[in-house]
Structure formats: structure tokens, C-alpha cells
Amino acid sequence: xxxxxxxxxxxxxxxxxxxxxxxxxxxxxxxxxxxxxxxxxxxxxxxxxxxxxxxxxxxxxxxxxxxxxxxxxxxxxxxxxxxxxxxxxxxxxxxxxxxxxxxxxxxxxxxxxxxxxxxxxxxxxxxxxxxxxxxxxxxxxxxxxxxxxxxxxxxxxxxxxxxxxxxxxxxxxxxxxxxxxxxxxxxxxxxxxxxxxxxxxxxxxxxxxxxxxxxxxxxxxxxxxxxxxxxxxxxxxxxxxxxxxxxxxxxxxxxxxxxxxxxxxxxxxxxxxxxxxxxxxxxxxxxxxxxxxxxxxxxxxxxxxxxxxxxxxxxxxxxxxxxxxxxxxxxxxxxxxxxxxxxxxxxxxxxxxxxxxxxxxxxxxxxxxxxxxxxxxxxxxxxxxxxxxxxxxxxxxxxxxxxxxxxxxxxxxxxxxxxxxxxxxxxxxxxxxxxxxxxxxxxxxxxxxxxxxxxxxxxxxxxxxxxxxxxxxxxxxxxxxxxxxxxxxxxxxxxxxxxxxxxxxxxxxxxxxxxxxxxxxxxxxxxxxxxxxxxxxxxxxxxxxxxxxxxxxxxxxxxxxxxxxxxxxxxxxxxxxxxxxxxxxxxxxxxxxxxxxxxxxxxxxxxxxxxxxxxxxxxxxxxxxxxxxxxxxxxxxxxxxxxxxxxxxxxxxxxxxxxxxxxxxxxxxx
Length: 670
Description:
This protein is an alpha/beta fold. The chain contains 26 helices and 21 strands. Strand 4 (112-120) and strand 5 (123-126) form a beta hairpin. The longest helix is centred in the C-terminal third of the chain and has 20 residues, at 637-656.
């Protein structure tokens, strides 16, 4: 740095010497150890073995030196950045390079100021300044220390300033303008900050980590499928909070994490396990053999990946899993759950619906078949509800299955078909208008009370509601009889609305999960009662489902189902088309009872309740017509006509003998 006019020595002379040292030292940036200098962003002294300021600038020129962009692009980039952020571009109108500087938001008339970079002989300087420099790198370095004629000092992006190695800086340079918001680099800095001690508090970012991990670890493990003889891939294994438990249950565990300190801690704690291998790798670049694992397990991983990265990893996991293999993962949704302070937080707090979409949209060709993920189960972690009144810790179990778009009416999964068609949120609210608050099945609360009377419910019993809908029956049984109810529904829309209702039910004994009863597993003898309303009509393989019910019930356990049924075949063309369009699988009440008997149930009662359905439908239609004005105000005239005509068609199908309504009660043998 030189003066273009003769002036007495100043503090800038010291900076000149420092920059000259920096220039010499950065000729071989891998071994760049200049003297310490003040951190212009934080006012602290950097380590003597830190990378020089000029070295950082030299290695990351693709981030801030953008000669090919115009003024509009520069404005677009800088408007998203904090004050002090800068870039250098070439101005075609001025025919020179210009320094663009982001000003504070309250600056007027613009939030970006532009300064021409002038060159004379062997020096470079800002137009209007008396300071000259031997290179652009030295000029930028100087203005990072002091503003001179600029309104404020230049600010290096946080990732560049805090990078601890030349390799990190080269990775930042490779990303160019995306570096400041690169999830992987931000995540690396985040976990470097939170991995100093490799403790459970750092992993969970919560002061109550010890108590939480004692309770939620067994809860999570209990949600996994049987791991006997299974090969498990644990992604984001961290310090091994789950590695030991997985190793006890599985044939083999491959524990992967991208933080070296976490892998070392996990190896120290669990290296004695003969069936565990440890691997340091970033999941976004991880390569593994196809069809190598039966289960992939992760706890708090995908919330640290971008949407694109999640989608890419999901497709790779479909390759790594064997046919029928499963994926279990748990994430923080909506907002932060831990109470530890964080200097910056790059976590992506998605909604459960966003995770559903990201994973069920993934597909991969394995052999000659197209495969994708189907949701087996998704629910809130109960430990966090109990300890922190927090329902936003959500876990999923998905299964790799062959894809057949024709069988799911053009949708990726049957769940997406339901949530997009019959059980779209607006349709659910219309059904609720007719059936009553909390109900989407025939007769609403009235028929619920009538049917529940058939059960001998006792306080403390455990009830599984398959196809719980909005949870009206579950809240009723819990309040009236003191039973604990798990409501399960395949429709994400239904469960989301049920959880909204649950927020108002303080101290409720009801839990909800998105669940596919045909793929879900529970330990034998788990429930006292299994209850289901108008749901099994969606299941073609009823025998296999009823065998599951029998296994899940305790000896002497009760089963109560109401369901759409059919009359003797052949059906009318209209009814045949109705069943095809809805994707129903219907039996006569007598056939239904036979399937239950063959599944192993005893004392089976197969009751034709069609007359009760007709009574309920007639009353519901009358109420709908009486409240037509209010309904139209909330929805529309066309929706009223569609719903009313749907009820009239149901009445006609029942009158014709095509559609029936059955109620089925049975016991598991003692």
C-alpha cells in the first residue's frame, strides 16, 4: 500500500507490511501461517496459525470476484446479504472494475453503493482515495480492516472468515456465489461449533439431554421392526447414542457420521462390539453397494440437508436397501426443540407434510422394477410431549416397495391418492359438516355411542383405532371410559387435523399417527381392543390384515368394525363404477364374517346394519338441506349440490341392495 501524495507515516504503514507478509505467505497457501491480525468482524486476535486475510481472499476469488455479472445481478445477490458484504464486477459503462458494497437497510437512496477501481502503472486504488495497493487482493484486505472513503468496512462472508483450512476455502470457492448459503458448509461449521466435547448435550443441543435420551432412546428403538438377522446402516450416528442398542438387536451395524470427533467417540464407546463398523463420510457423497441393508436408521439428519440433498439421498437409499427394506428417521419439525443457545442455526425445520412429499416422491429402478417409499408409520415422539409439551419431534418408518402407478390411479402412493382425492382437506371439512365435529363416518357421534356400547371398555385398557379419521371416536372413548387410544390413519390430512383437535384436549389419553395398517407392526398381545370405522373397505387383502389384528390383540381381546359392504353380485353398472372409482374392496356382511372366522377370531357376530345406515343418511341429508345457506357461505353452491347428490346416491344404492353397511364384533381366543 502506498500514498499517491506525500504524507507522514500512519497506521496504514503497519497494514502495508502485514499485506506484504500475507502476499509472500500465500504463494503456497497450503502452508499459510502469517503473524496474527485483528479479526475485522469480531475484534479478536486470530490464531498465529490461522490463514491470512489475503490468503482467504486469494483462495475464494470465485465467490467475490464476479466480473461477468451486470448491475442488476449484483443488486439481486447483495440484497439478500448483510451490510458490508461486497463483490467486484466489471462495469461496461465505466469500462473498469467496480466494487459493489451492501449498505445498511436504512440507507438512502440505495442499499448498494458502487466504487470504481482505478489502475495506474503498477498500483490499484479506489476512485477518490489516496491509498494505493500492489494488487486487488491487498486493496480488499485493507478495506476489510478500515473503511477509508467507504461508508463501512468490507465484510467477508462468515464461511470464508471462519474456515479453518485451505481445503474448506477451496470447497467454498468451488461453490462460488452459492457458498454463503451452502447447506453443507454451513452445516460443517455448525457441527464444528457443537462437537468440541462430543457429549450427548452437544448432540441433542439441550440442557436436559441426559433425561431426554434415557426416555426417548428406548421409545425410538421400540418403534423399529424386528432386527434379528438384519443388516443396519446408521446414518448420522453421531457419538453412538443409538449404535449400541442397534448392535444388540441386529446382525450388523454400519455407523456413519461426517464429524471425525463423533466417529472417534462412537468407536471408543462401541468399538468392542464385533458387529459394528465405523465410517467417516458425508451422506451426500456416500457410495455403498446396492441392496446391502435391511434397515437404514437416522436420528436428526435430514433437517441438516437441503431439499435437493434429501431427494438425492432418498434415491440412493432406495438402491442401498434390499427389497422390502425399511427406512426409519426422526426429525425436528416446525421449530427448534433444544434450549441450547446457538450463534447461528442452519437447521431446516420442515413440516411433516414436506418430509412425506420428499420421500414418497423418490423412486429408483432396481433391476427391472420401479421402487419407491411408502409410509408405514409417522408419529410424534411421546417423550417430548411428556417432558416438553412438544409434538414437533416426529419420526417415520417407510418401506421400499415396487411402484405401480396404475394401481394408485396415477399417484406415487395410495396415500397420495387419498389425500389428493376423497380425503383432500376441503373434502374432509365438508364431511365433518355433515357427520359432526370430529367425525367422518356414518352417523357421527350417535352411531359411535351405539357401537361402543358393544364393547366392555375398562379404564386403563389400550385401544387401537384403525382408520381414526379426525379422532372423534378416540376422544369419546378416552373421556368416557378412561382408555388409552392410539388413532392410526393412512391419510396425512386426517391425522394433521386430528392433531389440531388434540391440542385442545388437555391431558388427553389419545395419540395419533400416520399409519398403514397393512404394513405396520406391533408386538404380540399389545392391545385390549381394536376398533375400526368404515376403513377396511380400502384394503383388498383383508385376511392378512385380520391376522395382524389377531396377533396384536391380547388373549380375550375385542374387535369391533363397522364397514361398507355390498349386496350379492352381479351389481348394477352404476355401483360397479362407484366401487372402481373409489378403489374399494367390498364383501357381503356374511363373507366378511367368514373371513374373520377363518383368521382365527371366535364368537364372530356379522350384523347387517344397512337399515341403521339408511336412517343416519336420511337424517344427515335433511340436516344438510336445512343448513344449506350456512354451508354455501362456508363452501359453495356447487359443493353443496355435489355433497347432497352424493348422499342421495348412497340412499339409492342401499335401496337397490347394492350397498350395505356391516358391523362386526369378535374375540381373540383366550
